[in-house]
Amino acid sequence: MISIKDVKKIFSTKNGKVNAVDNVNLEINEGEIFGVIGYSGAGKSTLIRMLNGLEIPTEGVVSVAGNEVSRIKGASLRKARQEISMIFQHFNLLWSRTVRENIAFPLEIAGVPKKARLERVNELIKLVGLDGREDAYPSQLSGGQKQRVGIARALANNPKVLLCDEATSALDPQTTDSILDLLVDINERLGLTIVLITHEMHVIRKICHRVAVMEGGRIVEIGEVLDVFQKPKEPITKRFVQQVTEPEETKETITHLLSAYPNGQIVQLGFVGGSAEQPLITNLIRHYNVTVNVLQGKISQTQSGSYGTLFIHIDGESDEVTRAIEYIHSQKVGVEVISHA
Ligand code: ADP
């Protein structure tokens, strides 16, 4: 279904050339759920954007559903792109249109007559479980419902391939699971090929058949998800696998911390690049009337920010603690507040 041959993408910037994607070769089978995992800057978005012609490779050939998307342009590319849909981290819905109108939008563009359009929209609404929300506006929907609209819209023209760009990264764990279940359901019912990019290993483990690990524009490891979990070869893969194989250890840590700090809140921070723990903690102490104890965690620093998790304890007046936690939520970190029962 998808073939990527000797593909390179080089961006020229003020500071020189960036090898965003560097010599990638990859075949993805029809009906497969294929995951690409990597930290921020690894080249995942550039790779996925080359699959639907949003980026043209500097070298190499990309074919999707029988169309050489790296070569064609104009009307041929537009036609080829009907086979390839995409969903996004921030949903990219039209805010002034209702659920029904958002889903109908690609059908309108494709020139589908009104009656057929209405029927198709009703079908899609059922498929993604949005019955009763047809006339709501995006601002009236939860994150999970917004992504359901995104998925219905992406499926409107019966594509062969669905690309998911960090599609669950803005959702809480429970909603993430329900969206991932929906993707599996769609994959099984429609035989749709799904390619998803993520920095979260649990997403890969939950739904992917195979996974490629990207670092510095290259695929450094590829295989069946189970094999990669059992025998990760590269250090970076081992780090991703650890993201999800430590829950037991984490549970013990939490029980221990809750008894050690009976007051205030314990917060688990997850860093995935883009920000660092030190400025965040400095800001908390400086701008909020709270005490902050850095408890424990494993953090590694790279040029693009910190990676890992960190437990902190925040204590003070409850309003002030709430404000401090709101501030953390506004930052580029994963946040899990571990409350006292
Ligand atoms: P990821 O999706 O894994 O975070 P990206 O594909 O977004 O990675 O980026 C890979 C590299 O290419 C990064 O160094 C990024 O800064 C660079 N890059 C991406 N898009 C552009 C662009 N349009 N112009 C210049 N550099 C870019």
Automatic annotation (TrEMBL):
Keyword Cell membrane set for record: yes
GO MF annotation list: ATP binding; ATP hydrolysis activity
Keywords of this entry: Amino-acid transport, ATP-binding, Cell membrane, Membrane, Nucleotide-binding, Translocase, Transport
One BP annotation, GO: amino acid transport
Domain ABC transporter: 2-241
Organism, scientific name: Cytobacillus kochii
GO cellular component annotations of the record: plasma membrane
Upper classification of the organism: Bacteria, Bacillati, Bacillota, Bacilli, Bacillales
Entry-linked Pfam families: ABC_tran, NIL
Similarity section: Belongs to the ABC transporter superfamily.
Name under which the protein is recorded: Methionine ABC transporter ATP-binding protein
Membrane spanning stretches: none
